[in-house]
Amino acid sequence: MAKVMGVVNLTPDSFSDGGRFLAPDAALVQARRLIAQGADILDLGAESTRPGAAPVPAEDEIARLVPLIAEIRAQSAVAISVDTMKPAVARAAVAAGAEIWNDVTALGFSDDAPAVAAELGCGVVLMHMQGEPRTMQADPRYGDVVGEVAEFLSARAEAAMAAGVAREKIWLDPGVGFGKTLAHNLTLLAHMDAIVALGFPVLLGVSRKRFIAALDPVAEPADARLPGSLAAALAGVQAGVAALRVHDVAETVQALKVWDAISRAR
Ligand code: HH2
User: All domains of the chain, ordered by start, with CATH?
Assistant: First the structure.
């Protein structure tokens, strides 16, 4: 069965649940809830990547993340991933007990990022994004979105391995919604097998994303996008993705159990 990565945002402005889990206690309660619901991995983020979101200094990210990571680690063996672009934040998070660096810039934020990932020895999620969060949705363009995303991810995996990251530590993510129109997102989702064919485990993040509201205008606000999130997630699972990054863990686990049981009955 695909693994479920539950999102815990420690940001004041995340598009889907911003501000709700800002106080460390509230984030810990949310983390515990997602573990109880069956999350295999918790993805903790202290800087929003939403278009137009304010950048957060590394010290602030670290100050938000480290106490929470330490607390979760003390209470549970759940895998912990840190959603950050900054090597300094990944370093502090791994020291506190995180084992995965989820990087929406695919180790491209600074020149030392691949070497830091190698040194930390943690899992690394390399995600595709066209442009940068502030402007990425302004006018995204591709000649061949699937080919270009696949080529980028292969090149970043090669760069990571050249810097010393072990092959088995690498995950790829097509970055749904990151510098992509509705048509780009749908083409990618329809051809996810081409990303899976690159030979690394694939993480897919479609949960509560805006493309769902573009298809169904009643899917507002973001927490009204669960049905669309599940439909897109299962399309990914059918293509062979290894993990789903989601806000609604219990619901996703149930969908995966049913999907998995049907697959095994074939
Ligand atoms: N999506 C978001 C953030 N991080 N990481 C990966 N690997 N893949 C994704 O698709 C992905 C990601 C955006 O979602 P969310 O965390 O809810 O919002 P925000 O970026 O505003 O914190």
Answer: 3-265 (3.20.20.20)
